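From the shared-data thread, chain only:
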Amino acid sequence: GNKELEPLKYSKVATAAAVSRQKAESCIQGTTSLLSHCLGKGENVALVLKSVGVLLIEGTKVQMKFYHNVLERLSGKENLEKVVFKVPQLLDMMVSPVVPVASLTVSGRLVIFPK
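Structure, as tokens:
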């Protein structure tokens, strides 16, 4: 579409992560470079987002699996229970933080970020 991209504000990321701007920029660029390299080679990838969930990329399939407590915080416990009861497929979008990430894939083989 006609959406404009906004540059990433490294200083805001650095402040939120309590690191220098240079460190934040270096980590972000390194991660995106490695992610791009793995995807270019056709590797399956899992990007673990601390306290949020796991972004799985297998071939052309991209899926976000959220930790239950994140969805509960966003919607409230009662609302989440009602929605899951009405739409049980939402359970496929949830994952426990203690589940081995490789078990979420069809192949069981993937590159996990961050290490």
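The two ends are 35 Å apart (CA to CA).
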